[in-house]
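Weekly puzzle thread! Below is a chain. First person to post its structure in token form gets bragging rights.
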Amino acid sequence: MDPELKAKIRQWKAGMEAGNRFVLDEKRRRTPAERWLMLEAFLGDHAQFGIQKEKPADRVHKTPYCEVQERLLARSSGRLPSN
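Winning reply:
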């Protein structure tokens, strides 16, 4: 590998590690009350995003796994014998 590229990678990696240390130090300095306020703000923003959706079906939070599971259930429900 090119020595110049290796040096750039090392420099980038050092910068990322310094940034990670800074973020971790900031998180450790927060009090539980500050953490709680930040969590409430996050959840409030998340709820506002859900409210702003146009269709009610879009307001439901779904992961890709949930969508795949729903498709499989819909597909298999026709195959199962009804009681």
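Puzzle host: Confirmed. Bonus trivia for everyone else. Helices lie at 3-29, 32-51, 64-77.
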